[in-house]
What does this fold into?
Amino acid sequence: MAAKSRTYGHIPGVPVGTTWTSRKECGKSGVHSPIQAGIHGDSHDNHGAFSICLSGGYEDNVDSGETIIYVGAGGQDPNEGTQIADQTFDTGPNKALLISHETKRPVRVVRGADENNYYAPAKGYRYDGLYIVQEAALTHGKKGYMMCRFKLERLQEDGLKPIPTKRTLTTDKMKRMLRRAR
It folds into this structure.
């Protein structure tokens, strides 16, 4: 598992749109290995980030589907999940995403269930493709702390389907129900 999860780009045999019921299953696929961390990357030797997982962890994240404003790791109270300190680009996962901004290597994006996110799956986790880190900056977050802010844009590839939304999922469910009723 470790070798394929440290791959840039798609994981062979795991198409965009693949879903898992748990973060552990997603990790076994190699798409996003960490069970807890939102950023999987390596800041040593300029490797950069391999993947991120959006799962409602930071209130400063903004998911617009094709474009994501993603804040880095750190500064949260582990018990409360609220921001209590500044973030930095100095080491670890934030530095890995900064390196990805500089190198423009694609980063895999996984979305976890989040009732407040229009693009998140209703349950489990879903692989939504490759994104490029277009911007990286240190900015003030909603709580006033300095946050590592990254703007990611979805890489457009041939045959890439739109990201499912809560509306499209609901429409699909309704179509299935109508077919069954006939």
